[in-house]
Amino acid sequence: MDYIVSTLTNLLHQTAFLNLTGGNLLMIFVALFFLFLAIRYGFEPLLLVPIAFGMLLVNIYPDIMASPEETSNGVGGLLHYFYLMDEWSILPSLIFMGVGAMTDFGPLIANPKSFLLGAAAQFGIYAAYFMAIFMGFNDKAAAAISIIGGADGPTSIFLAGKLGQTEYMGPIAVAAYSYMALVPIIQPPIMKLMTTEEERKIKMEQLRPVSKLEKILFPIIVTIVVCLILPTTAPLVGMLMLGNLFRESGVVKQLQETASNALMYIVVILLGTSVGATTSAEAFLKVETLKIVALGLIAFAFGTAAGVLFGKIMCVVTGGKVNPLIGSAGVSAVPMAARVSQKVGAEADPTNFLLMHAMGPNVAGVIGTAVAAGTFMAIFGV
Predict the structure, then answer these.
(1) Quick check: helix, strand or coil at residue 185?
(2) pLDDT > 90? residue 166
(3) CA 382, CA 376: separation in Å to the nearest integer?
């Protein structure tokens, strides 16, 4: 009888019920809420589903993120090894290669002025950097947090790892990916507040055709120029442009298909679940986390506003030929931000088609955020 009681007691203590804290229950609820948003409303399910599930797993079974030193048998938890690839900047760089292989840079090549809109939208990053320092974060942590303003999850993870801010990587990554998913909710009110209905109705001229040679030379030239000026951007910009060269060269179709499909989705699974698994209650439920989430939202709002404001300036300079709405696409959320520009423009005039025009600033924003990350790394000598 004692053996049976002892066995049942041991089994009971092996369950998660006795180890769950109030914080764990709260994080489980947050994970379920994210899953609801992703599945019911389709808010970036490719991002939110793995992130939310990783969050769910780690708050039920914390050892899934345990390092080998923390376990009795010297074998780390499954998601610990996924997470190491985040810290080593492997997964963020591979994500960039997939994005490059999926993205047509033609609109940016056809309208190089889009680079200015993409650059303007990076204002939110630098505004958040100084605000983070004011709120008590050290300079490296402030830099890692500020990249959230670019709405670029992979770059946020990349910079946090390079600057040694792994303690903040979970909140930073979750905030960045959450804001990427909520672009259709966050951006439209800001865009409508800063533009008139007449401005939103502006129709832009059709973009000129871009030759195959231009599309092939673009990733090569950008890599040479950007990486010569800021070598620290090579892992991100280099992989982005390599993926795009796969796409545009036309001679490595198998590599382009692999990078933009199978490899991309494998990396999303590994990165998403490992990012979600950094949000254990003990690590996530802190005052610093709330500050990071708030700073990320402020940075993203500032970046959107700055892009629209510069779009308004370009509208005036060009005599009304630029719709200011495309400036909001200067954040890095490709192609979500461009779709939002199209949607808001179509609400003002159903015959207005801004998507391809907005893709220019959107692609420029990806490059701009990578450059901003490289700039911070150069400043801190990383």
Answers:
(1) helix
(2) no
(3) 9
Which residues contact residue 120 at a Cβ distance below 8 angstroms, ignoring those fewer than 6 apart?
306, 307, 309, 310, 327, 330
Say whether 314 sits in a helix, a strand or coil. helix
Instruction: State the CB neighbour count (10 A cutoff) for residue 119.
Output: 20
Question: Omega before 209 cis (within 30°)?
Answer: no
Q: How far apart are CA 124 and CA 129, in angstroms?
A: 9
336 pLDDT exceeds 80? yes
Tell me what pLDDT residue 56 has: 95
Q: pLDDT confidence of 14, banded at 50, 70, 90?
A: low
CA-closest candidate to residue 257, choices 41, 18, 97 = 97
190 vs 141: CA distance, rounded Å: 27
Q: Could you tell me if 239 and 100 are in contact, meaning their C-beta atoms sit under 8 angstroms apart?
A: yes
What average pLDDT is seen over the chain?
89
Asked if 86 contacts 157 with a C-beta cutoff of 8 angstroms, the reply is yes
Q: Rounded to whole angstroms, how far apart are CA atoms 292 and 148?
A: 9
| Whether pTM exceeds 0.70 | yes
Reported residue count of the chain is 382
Cα-Cα-Cα-Cα dihedral sign, residues 193, 195, 197, 203:
negative
Q: Is the pLDDT of residue 206 over 90?
A: no
Distance in angstroms (rounded) separating the CA atoms of residues 233 and 267: 20
Task: Report the percentage of the chain scoring pLDDT > 90.
Answer: 57
Which position has the higher pLDDT, 200 or 4?
A: 200
Q: How far apart are CA 8 and CA 302, in angstroms?
A: 57
Residues 299 and 279: their CA atoms lie apart, in Å, by 22
Q: How far is CA 136 from the centre of its chain?
A: 24
Element holding 294 (H helix, E strand): helix 287-317
